[in-house]
Amino acid sequence: MFNHNVFNTTNRFRYNFIHACRRSIQTKAVKRPPLGFAFDIDGVLMGGLEPLPKARNALRILNGDNPLKIKIPYILLTNGGGHTEYERAHKLSSRLDVQISPSQIVQAHTILKDYVDQYADKAILCLGGNGDTMRRVAESYGFRKAYTTTDVLAWNSSIWPFIQVSESELAFAKPVDFSRTPISAIFVFHDPRNWGVDVQIMCDVLQSGGLLEGPYIDKAQRKNNIKVVFCNPDLLWKSDFPRPRLGQGAFKASFQAVYKTLTGSEYPYVQFGKPTKATYDYASGTLHNLLDVSYGPGELPQMYMIGDNPESDIAGANAAGWSSVLVYTGVYDPTTGPPTNIPTHETRDVEEAVK
Ligand code: G3P
Ligand code: MG
């Protein structure tokens, strides 16, 4: 005799059993990873425009080719810049044969998105990069009055009489009358290409209170209310040249030396970029958001920063309470003695670091 109760009990058991399995599989599948990575770019993944030997393998391991068989979350945290995060992700994905999304990219100037509310409709000077790339990046963040030093030269080239603005540069210059357009802030987004022009124009803007060609304000009356922000403190960085190259930090030192010689004191400024706390907090938030999107709200896992520069990558990671791994493929040369900031680990290259 067919016993419904048994059938029902059996089905209810089967039903519960299936769902229990499904739940555990789901939980198993989407368990929040216990660790997260932040990769520096220059000197760790890239040597100039080319990937460093072990870079692709390292990212492949994080994309699932690992003993845990799970995707391990990571961001790229660089003091470099010069592109939108979308362009940078696109370029790196093709060079490193791995899909990297713009939301995984934290460049030196990404943090300037936090200034858009304050400066969206104010005239700002964006320094660094080639041509008008920094204007395009600034506009992609929401700054609607972003000008470059090429715009200033196109407006009045005698402001720096030593160079001729080329036709191609004039082509992307924005026509502006800077004698009527007060500059409210100077953002050094990326490494300036022509230090002479940029130092001259910064000194003109800051001594005249924002109006180029305007009279210089007497030192005693000068309020220094024009915001100056540097996005990358690196004195040196590693490209594909055998020895490290001067970075934005060297440009800042030059500007301040000239400004102090002119006015008697340095100009107050805000510094972003590794090792600053602001940039590591921004990076933590970026990876935290990525994880919450994939796994629902939860804690930031144990973070590993892999870098080549003891002053920026390692110092910042240590201060943020992250684990830090110093690789020998960039700025730091182990034959020159112990690093200025002691990492949690030291490895030959990025693949060894990930492993
Ligand atoms: O200009 C970029 C350089 O200062 C360092 O870049 O990727 O090593 O932080 P990165
Ligand atoms: Mg580096």
Mean of pLDDT: 91
CATH level 4 superfamily of the largest domain: HAD superfamily/HAD-like
- Give me the strand/helix succession: HEEEHEHEHEHEHHEHEEEHEHEHEEH
Work out the count of structural domains. Answer: 2
CATH topology description of the largest domain: Rossmann fold
Structure characterization notes:
The chain has helices at residues 4-29, 55-62, 85-96, 116-119, 133-141, 149-155, 167-171, 195-207, 248-263, 277-295, 310-319, 350-354, and strands spanning 35-39, 46-47, 50-51, 74-77, 105-106, 124-127, 146-147, 185-188, 227-230, 236-237, 245-246, 270-271, 302-307, 323-327, 345-347. α8 packs across α9. It folds into 2 domains: 38-108 and 277-354, Rossmann fold, CATH 3.40.50; 110-271, Rossmann fold. Helices cover 38% and strands 14% of the residues. The strands form 4 sheets. Strands 5-4-1-13-14-15 form a 6-stranded parallel sheet. The chain has a 5-stranded parallel sheet with strand order 7-6-8-9-12, with helices on both faces. It is an alpha/beta fold and 355 residues long. β6, α5 and β7 form a beta-alpha-beta unit. The site of magnesium ion (MG) has 8 residues, from loops. The site of magnesium ion has 8 residues, from loops. GO terms for molecular function: hydrolase activity. Residues 345-355 have a biased composition (Basic and acidic residues). This is HAD hydrolase. Keywords: Hydrolase. InterPro entries: CDP-alcohol_PTase-I, HAD-like_sf, HAD-SF_hydro_IIA, HAD-SF_hydro_IIA_CECR5, HAD_sf.
